[in-house]
Amino acid sequence: MSFKGPEVLGESGVFDEYEFEGEKEEILADLYQFNLACSVYGCLLENLTSEQASRMTAMDSASNNAKDMISKLQLAYNRLRQAKITTELTEIVAGAESV
User: Fold this and answer.
1) Cα→Cα distances 48→35, 44, 67, 94, Å
2) What angle do CA 74, 77, 82 make, to 5 degrees?
3) Is this model's pTM higher than 0.70 or not?
4) Looking at per-residue confidence, does 56 or 32 come out higher?
């Protein structure tokens, strides 16, 4: 991105066909400052948007990882619970057979 100063624009003759209220150099200097401020503001907005998008992506990834972890832990819990129930039933059946 390259900016030409107001002196260069004023001397280039690009704005000779336009009429200005006030001094042309002063108006061009104001326009230059406004253009520069708008460009900086646009860069700041782009930066903030990029940061927000990165945060959203990170949070989505963290949510998906948490869901996967919950599913794995729930499966492990259910397997252990089922193994315990099976063991208790085997003990009950073995105790009933011995009587």
Assistant:
1) 20, 6, 29, 69
2) 125
3) no
4) 56
Taking only Cα atoms into account, the Rg of the chain, rounded to an integer number of angstroms, comes to: 36
- The identity of residue 83, as a single letter, is A
pLDDT in tens, 45-85: 999 999 999 999 999 999 999 999 999 999 999 999 999 99
Can you tell me the distance from the alpha carbon of 24 to that of 17, in angstroms, rounded to the nearest whole number?
A: 12
Work out the mean pLDDT of the chain and round it to a whole number: 88
Cα-based angle 74, 76, 79 (whole degrees, multiple of 5): 110
Task: Specify burial of residue 53 (Cβ count, 10 A radius: 0-12, 13-18, 19+).
Answer: exposed
DSSP sequence for the chain? -----HHHHHHHTTTTTS--SS-HHHHHHHHHHHHHHHHHHHHHHHHHHHHHHHHHHHHHHHHHHHHHHHHHHHHHHHHHHHHHHHHHHHHHHHHHHH-
